[in-house]
Amino acid sequence: MDIRGISGGRLRIDLDAIIRNHRLVAERVAPAAVGAVVKADAYGLGAIAVVEALRDAGCRLFFVAHLGEALDLRGVLPVDARLVVLNGLPPGAEALCAGADVTPVLNSPEQAQRWADAAQAAGRRLPAILQVDSGMGRLGVAAADLAPLAADTKFRSMIELVMVMSHLACADTPDHPANAAQLACFETAAALFPGVPRALANSGGAFLPAGFHTDIVRAGIALYGGAPNRSAPNPMWPVVALDARVIQIRTIAAGGGVGYGLSHRCERDSRIATIGAGYADGLPRSLGNRGAAWFGGVRLPIVGRVSMDSITIDVTALPAGAIGPGDWVELIGPHQPVDALADDAGTISYEMLTGLGARYDRTYLPASTRDRAVAA
Ligand SMILES: *Cc1c(COP(=O)(O)O)cnc(C)c1O
Q: What is the phi/psi pair of residue 37, to 5°?
């Protein structure tokens, strides 16, 4: 269904800003290259549109979480682009992955063994990335298990190791001591694979000192305009704008309640606007009686609980008649960056973006083709 003009909310995604953010990270970490993390539908923004824009800007390295995501994207990428599955492969998926020319991350000796078997069965070397757990405790081969792998002749002969990688647990907190410890662990581990390019940093890591940039950076949230770390102003271009439509304005007398559970009581006669997006559209219930929308530079607090399809905001601060049904209020935009809304919701920009629902009227601002070449 074409929801243009009738939707409760509108989402604008600036592809040009994504390209500028990619270039900004690339300039910061040069000579390291910057691959684009486009897992979870490019953090909810639309993987096909985002990948096409980055591809046209010259990016040739993409990361997703699952093989299924890679298979959906392979067709929009040229043969010289590398598409990487960060979570690795479930047993039995090797032939599908190899046949689609997708590069798996090997997160365990068993995964490495199965990929070497798949290469033998295919009768050719297969590319792979080896992940080392340098201290995050999530995915990867333990440092102690690396030496046997490095010495394994079948592994060495059948697998073309295109990268050794690890992932930082605290990259968004620049002075966290775990960062230096992980870097040291990673460098020792990677030394077992001389000549193989190294990849450690995510968006946060790109804004750590140059030693963290190694050869390849995997940038996700920074491309989409989220703040790469907590201790500095966000240097990224905003990518997402989200507005919701006012669907009704009601006058509630002092003492009246608003919304499920009547969790808000009006202290004075109030004008309450109901806007057409709710938790089914990725606006968490935790925003109830906490967050705000914006209109004409005025902050309009959310009052009452967030419903599935609507939110109530107090518009009494606006002059009577200044806002009415059909007007749009800002939820993410110049007055309220995605990180600010996420803070109010008690979450992070990543969860806000990936939660944006399918009911918005989506507009993509095209990437300009002028002067946009990016590395990697
Ligand atoms: C998601 C992910 C990234 C991207 O992280 P950002 O903080 O969004 O830049 C990089 N590497 C791995 C292993 C990831 O899982």
A: -90, 115
pLDDT grade for 371, boundaries at 50, 70 and 90: low
Pairing type for strands 240-252 and 270-275 reads antiparallel
| Shared-domain flag, residues 261 and 153 | no
| Number of independent structural domains in the chain | 2
Q: Which one of 224, 258, 283 terminates a domain?
A: 224
Most informative mutation of 86, 213, 351 for ligand 1 (most atoms within 8 A of CB): 86
Q: Could you say which of 189, 224, 259 is where a domain stops?
A: 224
Tens of pLDDT, residue by residue over 148-189, are 999 999 999 999 999 999 999 999 999 999 999 999 999 999
Residues whose CB falls within 8 Å of the CB of residue 104, separated by 6 or more in sequence, listed in order: 67, 84, 85, 88, 89, 94, 97, 111, 115, 128, 129
Per-residue confidence band for 310, with pLDDT thresholds at 50, 70 and 90: very high
- For residue 48, what are its two tokens? 């096909």
- Residue 375 predicted with pLDDT over 70: no
Instruction: Say if CB 78 and CB 70 are below 8 A apart.
Output: no
Taking residues 222-226, report their average pLDDT. Answer: 98
Q: How far is the CA of 350 from the centre of ligand 1 (A)?
A: 10
Q: Identify the pLDDT of residue 94.
A: 98
Which residues form the pocket of ligand 1, taking CB atoms under 6 Å from any ligand atom? 37, 39, 86, 167, 202-204, 218-222
Give me the CATH number covering residue 61: 3.20.20.10
Q: Which atom of ligand 1 is nearest to the CA of 224?
A: 8
Residue with tokens 């980055």: 54
The Cα 352–Cα 347 span in angstroms is 7
Residues spanned by the domain of 190: 31-224
In a domain, 8, yes or no: no
Q: What is the pTM of this model?
A: 0.96
* Amino acid found at 1: M
